[in-house]
Amino acid sequence: MSAPDFTLDIQQTVSGIGAKVAKARAERGWSLQQLAQRAGMSAAAIHKIEKSGMTPTIASLMKVAAALGKSVGHFIEENDPLRPVTVVRRDERVRLYTSKEGLTLENISGRYGPFFVAGAEALAEPWADSGPEPMTHPGEELVLVTEGVMTFVIDGDVHELQSGDSIHFRTTCAHSWQNPSDEPARAIWLAIRSS
Question: Which pTM value belongs to this model?
Answer without folding.
Answer: 0.59
